[in-house]
Request: fold
Amino acid sequence: MSTTVGLVSFGVSGNIYSVRKALEQTGATVKIIKSKDDFKSLDKIVLPGVGSFKEAMENFGDFKTIVHDQILEHPTLGICLGMQIFSKIGYEFGETPGLNLIDAEVKKMEVKCKVPHLGWGKLSIVEKSPLLNGITQKDNFYFMHSYEVVNYTDVVALTNYCNHKFVSVIQKKELFGVQFHPEKSREAGIAVLKNFVKL
Amino acid sequence: MPLRIIARLDVKPPYVVKPVHFDGLRKMGIPHELAVKYYNQGADEILYEDIVSSLYQRAIQVDQIYQTSKDLFIPFAAGGGVQTIYHFEQLLHNGVDKVTINTYALQQDSSLIRRAAEIFGSQAVVVHIFAKRWRDWWECYSDCGRIRSGKNALAWAKEAESLGAGELIISSVDRDGRNNGFDTELISNIVSNVGIPVIAASGAGSLEDIKNMVLLAHPDAVAIGSLLHYNRTTVGELKSYLADHGIEVAK
Reply:
C-alpha cells in the first residue's frame, strides 16, 4: 500500500502542483486537503509554501485550528513558508500569529548580501534526523526566501548564506520542516521527500 | 553563492522561437522538450517567456506552461502578458514558481508589483527589464522591447525593488538575439544599485562573453537561449568552463 500524503492547500498562494508532482515521484499517493473532511484516512501531511506569512495565516481563517490539531496527529513536513508558519509569530507584512507548534519566530534575513536568498545552498547537519538519511553536506538544495525561522531548540541543519547561518531543517518529534524547496532541488530534494514518505 | 545558469525559452505558442533582434522569429522546438533537455544538462532554472501575449493583448496560455513544467524539479519562472493578481495565481497553480512581469507594471500600473509581493511573497515576483541604451542612459521598453516607456532603467530597477520585486531580469534591446556580447555596463550598473538578485539576459554569443560579463558585472544568474538552442554549448559545458575560470557554479 502506498503512503497517502495530504497536501494542505492554503488558498491563493501555494505551489501545490510542484510539490504534488515531486511527492508522486516518491511513490506516494497525494490528496489535496481543502476542508476538515479531507483529513480522513491520511498517513502524513505536507504544508507547501509560496506566499507571505500573513497571507497564508489569513487564508486559513477557521481552518487554522483544524490544521493545527491534525498536524499533532500526523507526521508533518512543512516546506519553506509551510515550515515558517509552525512558529509562534511571523513578521512579514506586520505581526501575525502562526500555528505555534515550535518555539520560534520568523524574521527577515539580516545579511549584507542580497535578499531574497535565491539559489543553491548546502546543509551543515547538526543533529541526526531520519529526514536527511543519505543526504550529505555536499548535496545542493534550492532556496527561495526572504525570511528565516529563528529557533534554537529543534534545529537539524543550518545553511550558510553570506557568512550568516540560518536554520534550514528542523525536527520536533514527528514534525519536520525544511526552508529549501525539495520539489525544486533535483534528485537530492526527491530523496528528502522519499525519506519523509517512508518514515 | 553559486552563479545560477538559467535556460531561457522565448515562446510563441506552441513553439520556442528565437527572436532575432526582436524581429524575425525562428522555430527552435517544443517548450516541454527543450525544458527537459536543459534540465538534464544541469540547468539551475528554466525561464519561459510568452513573447506574444502582451503584443496580442491576450492572457498567457497556461496549458502550455503546465506542460512545460511537468517534468522539471528545479525552479520554473514564466510570464508574458501578466496584468492581474489572477494571472499570478493561475501561473503559480500551474507549475510556475516565479512570475515575470514587464509591460503592464511598466506602462499601466506599477502597484501590481506590490500587490503581488504581498500575496505571493517577493520571491515570486520577477520584473523583466528590457533596456535600450541611449547616449548616457538606458530606457525601459515594454512588449519585449518594442515600445518605449520614457522610464530610466536604473530608476525603474530601484522602484521595482522598493515595490517588492524579488528579482530582476535584464534584457538589452540592442543586444537581444544578436549573439555579440552583453551590455555589461547596463548589467553592472543595475547590479550595483539594487539589493535584489539580478539575472543577466540578452547577448551571449560565446562562453567567453558570459565569463567576461560575469567577472565584470557580477550578476546572480545568467539566462541563455540561442547558445543552447543551436547546440553551440550545453549547460554542463558552460558550468565547467566557468568553474575553470574561477566562477562558482552549482554542479
